[in-house]
Amino acid sequence: MTGFLRRPHLGTARRWLPALLLWLGGLAGPLAAQAQAKYLTKTGYISFFSASIMEDIEAKNNKVAAVFDLGTGQLAFAVPVREFQFKRTLMQEHFNENYMESEKFPKATFSGQLVNAAQVVKQLPTGSQNVEVEGQLTLHGVTHKVAVSGTLQMRDGQLVVFAYFNIAPADYAIDIPLLVREHIAKSVSVRVSLTCDASGPALVSQP
After folding, report:
1. Which segments of the chain have a pLDDT < 70?
2. Cβ atoms within 10 A of the Cβ of 199, count?
3. Cα separation, 59 vs 90, whole angstroms
4. Of 70, 169, 188, 206, which is least surrounded by CB within 10 A?
5. From the centroid of its chain, how far is CA 95?
6. SS3 for 134?
């Protein structure tokens, strides 16, 4: 994700959430029957930033569809690439057409497992918990295993998720033109913020 959209296809994000629920259910397997406390959102927020000698690169997107299952500790989210918004229209066009090839790869996805899930869920009513999620990140048609740090917190019946990690565009076959390659940082900082509503019986009560 480095330098970089076009018009979004209306209704696309609405179709992803049911698909994510089915996907997460399939990943959970037999464990799914043990816990029904899934938290979900269709308006999650993601942003990325990359420092550049020429011009800093920054974009924001508030159309992330996500599902977090506290019963299994599994998380899945999908990001519509075309929904990233830049300050400059030209940069947004380059991002979609030349870097991310949004027509060919319209979304990025992550599917992961909360490390030490049982302990985290047990402590969640006491306050914000530092967590780590390990999983598969698919971007620009390339999938890599990643470890993502962040926090979980129960707030007014909602599950608030915050995560941060770095991505190296080269790892995901994102080609940076030689002309600007030396002027752009080798990694991009990504931040994810999700405020999820419960879709089933809550496993974690408020203190």
Report:
1. 1-36, 178-184, 200-207
2. 14
3. 13
4. 206
5. 18
6. strand
Burial of 60 (0-12, 13-18, 19+ CB in 10 A): middle
Residues 6+ away with beta carbon under 8 Å from 2: 50, 57, 99, 169, 174, 176, 184, 185, 188
Nearest in space to 114 (alpha carbons), one of 99, 129, 128:
129
Residue closest to 186 by CA, chosen among 1, 61, 60, 4: 1
The tokens for 52 are 């550049």
How far is Cα 17 from Cα 190, in angstroms, rounded to an integer?
A: 22
* CA–CA separation, 151 and 28 (whole Å): 22
CB contact set of 136 (below 8 Å; sequence gap of 6+): 110, 111, 112, 143, 144, 145, 146
Residue 6, C-beta contacts closer than 8 angstroms, at least 6 positions apart: 82, 92, 93, 96, 97, 102
pLDDT at 176: 76
Cβ contacts of 154 within 8 Å, gap of 6 or more: 124, 125, 160, 204, 206
Cβ atoms of 96 and 87 within 8 Å: the answer is no
Q: Which residue has the tokens 């390659």?
A: 181
Is-above-0.85 flag for pTM?
no
Q: Which secondary-structure segment (H or E) carries 146?
A: strand 142-155
